[in-house]
Specification:
9 strands; 254 residues; 7-stranded mixed sheet; alpha/beta
Length: 254
């Protein structure tokens, strides 16, 4: 089964997890291309300066300095770069010049004849032509237990809301937001983890869930889990007040 991954060039957590995913692929599967979007952690495209200002404004000085320092270090550490991982495995890296839903972009993706698309930290909305492009469908990883915590930054919101458990969901993409039927779901206890620790934990768990999902699709032996809109909760990007309440509850970013 030929797989195309759609992800973003995120400098903190993704490279090592993509590496893990590639190394542990089931025998009857291979990654034929990776569509690499420019990094955009807030769910929409913004300039680098705009992202920096937004981070500082909402999360404060310490958070800004912590991740600014990490970002600078990542520029000198090629192991943190997804292109380096792809080069190691001789997997084509594709940078689209137009929207992923544009006809020209779809033609590029089709040229690799993928059987399955997998979105990991994708930052563009997928429309029906892309969703239906691969015969086995399009999977997405969401780091929460759907249908709860649809939307942005679930690791922040589960901590702020004092949840005892969270997890990951690998689901088939539809035209809604985190609303498709679930193929694999895994649950973990949060305990006293910081947000950074929770991000790392759910990313690693998410790769294992994706691998399990690939195996299920290859074997054609699975039952989908419902993801009902009637039970959903949905969260947007946090405000300064949300961050203040997060800290007041004794929660930590790192």
């Amino acid at each position: 089964m030929k797989i195309t991954i759609l992800t973003q060039d995120e400098p903190f957590y993704l490279a090592e997890n993509i590496d893990y995913l590639i190394k542990n692929l089931p025998e009857k599967s291979s990654i034929v291309s990776v569509i690499l979007f420019d990094v955009s952690p807030f769910g929409k495209k913004e300039s680098f300066v705009a992202k920096a200002k937004k981070t500082y404004s909402v999360f404060g000085f310490k958070f800004f300095v912590f991740y600014a320092f990490r970002y600078v270090l990542s520029q000198f550490n090629t192991n943190k770069k997804i292109p380096k991982v792809l080069k190691k495995y001789e997997i084509p890296e594709i940078r689209l010049e137009k929207s992923v839903n544009h006809e020209d972009s779809l033609d590029i993706i089709k040229s690799y004849e993928p059987d399955l698309l997998i979105s990991i930290a994708g930052n563009q909305i997928f429309k029906s032509q892309l969703i239906n492009l691969a015969p086995k469908g399009c999977l997405n990883l969401h780091t929460a237990l759907l249908p709860k915590y649809r939307g942005l930054m679930p690791t922040f919101w589960v901590l702020k809301n004092n949840e005892k458990h969270t997890g990951v969901s690998v689901f088939f993409v539809d035209e809604g937001i985190d609303s498709g039927p679930i193929l694999v779901q895994k649950k973990i206890e949060i305990g006293d983890m910081t947000q950074e620790e929770l991000i790392k934990k759910t990313k690693t768990l998410g790769m294992k869930a994706i691998l399990e999902g690939i195996e299920k699709i290859i074997s054609q032996d699975y039952q989908l889990i419902k993801n009902p809109d009637s039970e959903q909760t949905y969260y947007k990007f946090p405000t300064k007040q949300d961050v203040k309440e997060f800290r007041a509850k004794g929660k930590r970013f790192f």
